Amino acid sequence: MMNIALIGNPNTGKTSLFNNLTGSYEYVGNWSGVTVEKKVGIFKNGKDQLIDLPGVYTLNPLSKDEGVVTNFFLNEPFEKLLNILDASQLRRNLHLTLQLLEYGAPVIIGLNMLDVAKNRGIQIDIAKLSESLGVNVAPVVARSGKGCDELAELVTAGAVGTGKNNLVYYGKAIEAGILELENKLAGKIKHPVRWLALQLFEGNPYVKNYLETILPIEEIEKLINSVTVDQQQNADSKQALDQVIHRKRSEAIDKIVSAATTKQENKKVPLTEKVDMVVTNKFLGIPIFLVLMYVMFMLTFDWLGFPLSDALDSFLSGPLTSGITAALAAAGASTFIKDLILDGIVAGVGGVLVFVPQIFILFFFISLLEDSGYMARVALVMDRLMESVGLNGKAFIPMMIGFGCNVPGIMAARTIETPKERLMTILLTPLMSCSARLPVYALFVGAFFVEQKAAVVLSLYVLGVVIALILAKVFSKTLLKGETSVFVIELPPYRLPQARALWRSTWDKGKGFVKKAGTFIFAGSVLIWLLAYAGPEGVNVSMDDSYLALLGGIFAPLFAPIGFGTWQASASLFTGFLAKEAIISTMNIIYFVPDEASLQGLLAAHYTPLAAYSFMAFILLYIPCLATVATIYKETGSRRWTAFSIAYALVIAYVLSLVIYQGGRLLGLT
Amino acid sequence: MLGKLKTGEKGRIMNIASADKFVRRRLLDLGIAEGSEVCVKCILPFGGPVMVESCGQCIGIRRKEALRIEVERV
Ligand SMILES: Nc1nc2c(ncn2[C@@H]2O[C@H](COP(=O)(O)OP(=O)(O)OP(=O)(O)O)[C@@H](O)[C@H]2O)c(=O)[nH]1
Ligand SMILES: [Mg+2]
A single Gene Ontology molecular function, please (chain B) (predicted)? Predict the structure, then answer.
């Protein structure tokens, strides 16, 4: 078995290729920094492993996702590298290739995006490129799968050469520095010294740390200093070492590229630029973004999603329930089993499944945004606003993803370069109203705000964003002061999303929701039903005497000032910590109803519209769900920040609901 | 200064040394360095970022950083 690592610049199609070669599905999107952690898959031959890595421009990392790659290089075993190049941006891509060749591992190059290059009038002589680098170059189109089989064969078959590792001469001073390090390290190390030395001179912190485990720090510092001084004297310039190294590589690349490519001037304005003239237009940029969001929102909640969910609800509560009832009767099931299945499982799981159509519509639009290339434009358009609260436009990408699910949103924050902004983004992304919160709103607006359904839900989404922005301002002025904020973003060309890719991406996201309903919510429903079925006085007690009522009752008085001091409300808030949609299952079970419509009827007796709004606002903010908390812990690596993310959310939610409920009452609302 | 160019104007980068070091590194990663030709594609309102094209790729940077990059009009 071999480990083969995929490596290349961001957004060059590595994950698309990975999916093609392994038959799995990992996250693909048209912006830089989609993949943020290592993913492992098995080749279709069933033997070798392919490892997908985040995209990097060089092996000297700036952000956390890039660090993953350098770490992989230093600490993990691999036999071969599969370097993916974007044929339309060869020059920039080859900087990384040169570093890989310096490393000296067996490399094969996959030349991707040939269709894009062709459209731009770039012709590449593959044989010549392969010859000047000394490695195999295989043309592929990862998107359509063209050339993938040949590439798979090439990489999994026997031995592969390591290419030319001396394509660049870095000048006397640097080359002498490399030799000196070689002498110091002789025999002590398994990585190629030339590569280590160049990375060290470029200022790669991971490599420096690694070398510090072998050599004394002072010696390393001394070496860097002396090389810098020599270099500056020799060249009679003030350029730093990393710039010199970069320039030397550029010169070598220029030679390679001009020998291997021909470019016809293409006077046509690319479609991408035409689209950009509109969507990033001075005046239209923000309005267009808002209109798009509005359309997406209305389709999810009103125009399309609502009727679909309604139809599903009547199917679940009608034919399905009666079918199960009949089947249970025929099987002669006991009353206990019948109650458990109908009032527990069907009510609990069914109550959540009803919202599958709406969730899928939402995920479809998020996938569309991700795959088209608009995501990076949103970041650009929002940067000014984000800057004013101490963040940068890139932080908007995790937040948009967070509308689908907070967990990948928080992961996406890895691409934010400065630690302070990254931390803030991690802390604030849970305030974005994720798809699991959507069922709660749908249920409540159906019961209380039938006329202004969409407007009420929209107000909650906006509330989440506004609170996040305000808190960002507060945090950056208090807890997380200092450190400048930077913003550089690559704007990829627009790509027309393919139906198949869109569907896979939507399904991949939506699948989680369905799966959760079948496992987590299923088990939770059984547990809740049992807690509601049994009480201190025995089993089959009246619900108000059950354990569940007892537990909920302890905390109920706390919620009275914000409008929902019932044991039912606090019991469902508890389950909501496990997964937000569990709130719905719990309510379905507690209120003992078979379907959404009758639950809405019952809710009207327990909540006033004002209390219902206060409840929804509380659900929006009160706590990140269990999976999100685990991710926050994983990403911050700090118990304190994780605890903080929970605590501040609770405080904000309580205060805001208090303001809404008490303020509303003062204004005479009910 | 790059930040002074108007939409549609082209320039060649002369000096990038006074830009923030993060920004400089990222621009270098993207293949934009001294000598690169750039074209301003669009400028967002209220002092927002600028969108710049260079060698067939577009990037966005803040106006404040663009004002620290010396260019010569071409
Ligand atoms: N036109 C064209 N588009 C492609 C090709 N390969 C991939 N794409 C598209 O390029 C975009 C980026 O693909 P990904 O596979 O996510 O790229 P990646 O290299 O994994 O990106 P990061 O994880 O961000 O580093 C997607 O929108 C793909 O559909 C290709 O050969 N031609
Ligand atoms: Mg990827």
Answer: transition metal ion binding
